[in-house]
């Protein structure tokens, strides 16, 4: 092979190796945020709600090590009677376990946090979809409207976790309804259903996102 061809091949191979190295070097670990669905489903069954409600909180498959601003919540009423969401008795914790009152985001955000929040009513056969935050994430702007000034949780600390460690936070949702086979909205006929959504945050090494790593 002429010497010029050898040089061209060598440069080509070096370029391939360099580009491959740079591509791998630029790959980053990610964070996984997972809801403990088996534990949630067990609570729903224990409280006799499996035929009364369907609950969904959508999450992304992976996250960057960045703040998570809020949670989206959908509660469908599959029963024949209204279901009520008690926002003031619902709560969000952070990674340190500190509990904060849940606040649902409204279009106007003209909320007075010193006053109780109005219950949300989910009529039979309908669904309620809300975006929720924690109370201490909100601050009044110059126009009096509340603004989100802090994240719900910050996934930054997850970047330094060992693979076998995790961080947790909890969303506690309180629902109320009139007991089946009762008449009248009397206090003794009401049932309170607290549901705990437990979320786990873990670090995912960049190479575990590839199929060959997952199969191994």
Low-confidence stretches: 21-26
The number of distinct structural domains comes to 1
What about the largest sheet?
10 strands, antiparallel
Number of strands: 14
Element-level helix/strand string? HEHEEEEEEEEEEEEEH
Strand content: 35-45%
Number of helices: 3
Q: Could you report the average pLDDT, rounded to the nearest whole number?
A: 86
Question: How far is the N terminus from the C terminus?
Answer: 42 Å
Q: Helical content, roughly?
A: 10-25%
Q: Indicate the structural class.
A: alpha+beta
Task: Kindly provide the radius of gyration, computed on alpha-carbon positions and rounded to a whole number of angstroms.
Answer: 25 Å
Shape: elongated
